Amino acid sequence: MSLHFIAGGAGFIGVNLAAALLDRGHQVLVADDLSRGTREAMAPLESRNGFSFVEVDCSDPDLIDAALGDRQIDEVWHMAANSDIPAGVADYRVDLRQTFLTTAAILDVMSRRGIPVIHFASSSAIYGDHGDRAIFEDIGPLQPISNYGAMKLASEAQLRAAKEAYLERVSVFRFPNVIGVPATHGVILDFVQKLIRTPDDLQVLGDGTQQKSYLHVSDLIGAMLHIADRNEPYAVYNIGPTDEGVTVRFIAETVRDAFRPAAQIHFGEGNRGWVGDVPKFRYSVDKLMETGWTPELGSTDAVLRAVREIVAQEAP
Amino acid sequence: MSLHFIAGGAGFIGVNLAAALLDRGHQVLVADDLSRGTREAMAPLESRNGFSFVEVDCSDPDLIDAALGDRQIDEVWHMAANSDIPAGVADYRVDLRQTFLTTAAILDVMSRRGIPVIHFASSSAIYGDHGDRAIFEDIGPLQPISNYGAMKLASEAQLRAAKEAYLERVSVFRFPNVIGVPATHGVILDFVQKLIRTPDDLQVLGDGTQQKSYLHVSDLIGAMLHIADRNEPYAVYNIGPTDEGVTVRFIAETVRDAFRPAAQIHFGEGNRGWVGDVPKFRYSVDKLMETGWTPELGSTDAVLRAVREIVAQEAP
Known about the structure:
The structure is a homodimer.
Chain A: E1 3-7, H1 12-23, E2 27-32, H2 39-46, E3 51-55, H3 61-68, E4 75-78, H4 85-90, H5 92-113, E5 117-123, H6 147-165, E6 169-175, E7 177-179, H7 187-197, E8 201-204, E9 211-212, E10 214-216, H8 217-229, E11 234-238, E12 246-247, H9 248-259, E13 264-267, H10 286-289, H11 299-314
Parallel strand pairs in A: 1-2, 1-4, 2-3, 4-5, 5-6, 6-11, 7-10, 8-13
Antiparallel strand pairs in A: 9-12
Helix pairs in contact in A: 3-5, 5-6, 7-9, 7-11, 9-11
Pathway (chains A, B): Bacterial outer membrane biogenesis; LPS O-antigen biosynthesis
Domain NAD-dependent epimerase/dehydratase (chains A, B): 5-240
Protein name (chains A, B): NAD-dependent epimerase/dehydratase family protein
């Protein structure tokens, strides 16, 4: 039985990961500053054997180190990040501190304490817009167009240098758009909340043709554990569904049908919702598939399931 | 006549760049915290028309902004960085603050003030070890093995996102090993200083077979101005000589012959001098050559000239 430390563990991915690690019989220590994650999200974990939580700002190595006390950490899962891309566009310091300086601080603590293994939640946003080219893990050039993507790439760069110097094992998971509960952000939650405020009318940013692939969080956690179990010294994998995704129109209609069947949907213009949002994306998960992993849900089924879950979360 | 701001302008590259910009009739404002650059290095610039200097920590946007006062900056040249790779290996905070947070701070100030153009000194160290593959600008994956290279890559990532949001024009120069005066670090200076301390004996780290290409700073400045003059919206270029370089043995012998002909050279073992030092490197400058640029000096001539200059600097 080993002790896993999850930085940012009170967030959407973190609480799902914590549950899965507890299911495997590990001890789990979650660290979170509760700026985005919540105690409420961790409620189902609190009573479980082996779970503990510390409230700490993971961008400060001294605070993390103090919070760890004399615990011996075996593996680190770094899920701490700003997940609100537009907030990072408005103020670069959000991603600088929450997405990048957390990486610097966590690596600092790992170096001091000799913690040998880290698993990192990177992002498909490191790639930027490659037009029609399929996006494999080793594609170049890397051209993130949001501060969020830039700070995820900056984090990967520092992990790579740390691997050379002192780490034994690194996993870099390049996340797709992930959906499920507890939802804290994202297009489905946004639509559900809009329909709570204005039940007859759903305003959609952009013309609805924007297409993205979505992975359900249950498949994401499965992929992360699958990759971690391979024990590669430096594992870099795209994670995602195998389809080319669904449109914003499909998501809007699914939310409407599940929640407010009588509502009217109104689309805007253009196929970009905000700066940093890439319209279409040929994200290859061939490398991961070749290791024997397959997602249980494609984008369509992931959206259908997540819409049900998020409607239940927001309008119980 | 326009005003060019050089961050880190009291360093080796910065003072050579400042002189070249003054030669072109521009005004030049150098900012430097003098942690590595010196007033002595700027002495030949002080009396020239259009030159001014402010002592400021370029990792703090408020300090930069205050130092700029009501000056209207037309173009920024970001040359501020830790240039001591082993120092960054020993303490990641050195490269974090001096190499990366300078980029974040400078971009912050540019955003606030609407300064539209930046030229950035990146590095071949962003690529890492690619074995026998030729290193073109768009190669992947990027796998820096030093904190220095990681923080240069992190800086490029942030520049790319800033270009999407508010910058008009960006140049990214991926520097090779650059030699010349005023030398503040590097293998030639190291050997000359060793021979000042122990005139009969030169101890060399590694077995001397390590091979690198070197560009003389005069060719580097020429290449930077050549690229900047092309006015590309987002220019990324490797800069370097066209040869595959010279060995450490050649450099040691050249320094010995020029400075202490009777000294004995003693080599160590292995072909890596320190963590983060890539043994051999097939760095392609084809993209730059195709724009009509050629270096005046190959690695051999660059070393011969720099050795003379650095010997004169250290033992005048």
